[in-house]
Amino acid sequence: MTVRKSDADAGLRGPAIHTARHAIHASLCRPILFMGAEPGVVIVEAAVVLALLFVVGLHVATVGVAVFYVTVVHSAVTRMTASDPQISAVYVRSLFARDFYPAHAYLRAGPPAVRPSLPRVR
User: Which end of the chain has fewer surrounding CB within 10 Å, N or C?
Assistant: First the structure.
């Protein structure tokens, strides 16, 4: 613990303020990514590629589409994730927002009805 220099130099009466510095490990701040993309996106990519190869069949065309998907689509997703690690969550959340919000007639006018964000359980 250290005492702030300004309090000690000023000769203030009362308890000295102690400040401590704690290091936060970088792994606690960094997002969890698989192969440079969000885990959910990588799982969907792997499922699509495996479905192409094993459900459709091993043909030259399906292998070519799978290789294209792994190289081009994954690199695009990796670039988007580099700019925002939670881009898919932000995109899904933006789907529920309206494109246009009309102006209110007066200050105490109520807002228009908005759909609930969670589906109802039946």
Answer: C
How far CA 60 is from CA of 46, 67, 70, 83, 113, in Å, comes to 19, 10, 15, 35, 52
For residue 46 the two structure tokens come to 């792997």
SS3 per-residue string spanning the chain: CEECHHHHHHCCCCCCCEECCCCCCHHHCCCCCECCECHHHHHHHHHHHHHHHHHHCCCHHHHHHHHHHHHHHHHHHHHHHHHCCCHHHHHHHHHCCCCCCCCCCCCCCCCCCCCCCCCCCC
